[in-house]
Design goal:
Distance between the termini: 22 Å
Number of helices: 19
Helix content: 40-55%
Amino acid sequence: MPETDTFRRHDGRWVTFAVVAAAVALVAHAWTLGFAGLYGLFGNGVDAIVYRHGGGTLLTGEGLYSFSLFETSLPFTYPPFAALVFVVLAVLPISATTAVVGVVNILLLYLAVLLSWRILGYRGVPTHVVALGSAVAFTWLEPVRMTLWLGQINLLLLILVLWDLGRPDGSRLRGIGVGLAAGLKLTPAFFVVYALAARQFRTAAVAVATFAATVLAGSILLFDDARTFWTSAIFQSDRIGWLPSPANQSVHGVLARIWSDGSPPMALWLGCVLVVGVLGLWCAVAAERRGARLLSLTICGLTTPMVSPFSWGHHWVWCVPLVVVVLDWAARSARSWSWAIPALVVAPFVAWYWTAPSGTAVIGTFMLGVPSWARIPVTSVYPIVFAVVLVVAVVSTAGPRYLRQRLRDRSPRVELSVEGQRGVSGAGRRKPTYGDIAYGRGDVANKTRLGLGSVEEDALDGRKFAEQGVEVVRLDSGLDDRGVEAPVPRA
């Protein structure tokens, strides 16, 4: 585990900001749509009721994929394993189900924010306060608000992946969270591809084994329903929603809204998904190799709703760690305009709303009434945010050197790269030799045996990122535009 003296800590300004933001968010909820009314923050819970009914099919024998609820004919769209998990809701009254799911989702939101800060290296009581205040403020993000309003499981999936892959490489059963999340809903399985691309093969193997166990459990206990899901229901994206709907914030939805009949050719969609998926994975892996693990996971998490056949706005809960990433960047940046970036990132995700003549509250940037010329970009706002994130990631990773330098933190840092090994300290690892090289840039986490400062414990491909201000002994070497380059003496 990292040494405590290398942790970052939130100061009093962060605590004040979080408390004020939470208070403003609560007042705004009370003055607008409220908390308990039909369109209040917790006033619906319809998806929680669907989960309850799906779990109840184990007790009643009803077909899991044959029922639909309410006037909107809401079906069960998750793998059979999800019904096994939801059976605990079936023994509760409907009112208790929605209440329990609402409380659990608030707790999960707080944990998602806290985990995001912890992955960035923050610890201490102030971090818990900042996480709690931020979580309350984030209830005004449309993906979060709609998840709470509907009683969705998106935050559970986020937590499973964030906790699992936010741990150091080599952690016990790393990958189990991804496998469980994929068993509940298929889209997190994309993180298995991410693990393979990042050469985290053991993580990928654990995830695949866990997912296979969920499939096996569902097939044994719900054989007929499992056969229906894996041979039929899984291919029926229209069971989720109307493809050209503005609420469909995926590549498929964008193409459907552009296409005249709302049904783009399958080959076109698959081609676009392949391009988006590859770009998302490349940027995510590149960020991981630079030591930016939270950014890496966030890019991958944002890619999953892009490549999904149908993605409601509330599927984009990975906007939560995205906002944390840009808040941290702005706090550490010396640029006067840096705080404009979090504002620009948050604005598209805010739960803007208007009230239709029928009294219906229409929530989300993509649902705003706009002139016809602005309809396509406004109804594709989340994919546009994703594209901007990828562009920034590409420029900072593979763009011209002077552009990359402007995007980096200007403070001097040192990165220690150990050739042929994954680390510089710990049991079973060799001591560095003269062949070890020091480079410029990085973040911190652990003490090295060399006394060169602090390094990240779980960096990829043997790279270790040293804390700014460390000293490197220069032996027969010079400086380049990356910082310091020098052989490291024997330990």
